[in-house]
């Protein structure tokens, strides 16, 4: 894990994220868990540890600065991405991780337990069937669906001044054209990753 630690620490510096030793250990521990469970659960197509650090951990953490408020939900979290790395990075923020795949939510539950994350909860539900008691300040999606569908499916989860953060690859111009709400396109640089990334920020009300 020496190389992974190096990649992670230089990536955190590039992202201006000051994490303590325990948080670094938790992030590396998460990579080990994905690697261990991947064989049976097919959590991710990415197999190499170093690639997992870049394409899972740093890719997730690249949006940390755009999280607003103390209640965040990660829709279609899959193997816990970006929710778990962000929960490790932002211990004062409460994260809800939602996915309709039972295998993946079982893995996420195990990861939350093993990494001793007090600020993360996982639910096995489809987004349209999930009715929380309280709405969220930030809704995050990563490779989940078309933007206009995301806006419709998550409207009931967003608080009055909430923001929706949709993680995308290349500039999704055609998708943006279909969204009536106010959108902001934020270019995202993931350390060690050449592929284009961007974040679409959509305000809840106009």
Q: What is this structure, in a nutshell?
A:
The chain is an alpha/beta fold and 206 residues long. The protein is 39% helix and 23% strand.
User: How would a crystallographer describe the biggest sheet?
Assistant: 7 strands, mixed
Q: In which order are the strands of the major sheet placed?
A: 3-2-1-4-5-7-6
- Rg from Cα: 16 Å
Order of helices and strands: HHHEHEHEEHEHEE
Helical content, roughly?
25-40%
Features:
206 residues, alpha/beta, seven-stranded mixed β-sheet, 39% helix, 23% strand
Q: Can you offer a commentary on this structure?
A:
- A seven-stranded mixed sheet has the order 3-2-1-4-5-7-6, sandwiched between helices.
- It is globular and about 45 Å long.
- Helix 2 packs across helix 3 and helix 3 crosses helix 4.
- The N and C termini lie far apart (46 Å).
- Strand 1, helix 4 and strand 2 form a beta-alpha-beta unit.
- The longest helix is centred in the N-terminal third of the chain and has 21 residues.
- The model has no long low-confidence stretch (mean pLDDT 95).
- It is built from seven helices and seven strands.
- It is an alpha/beta fold.
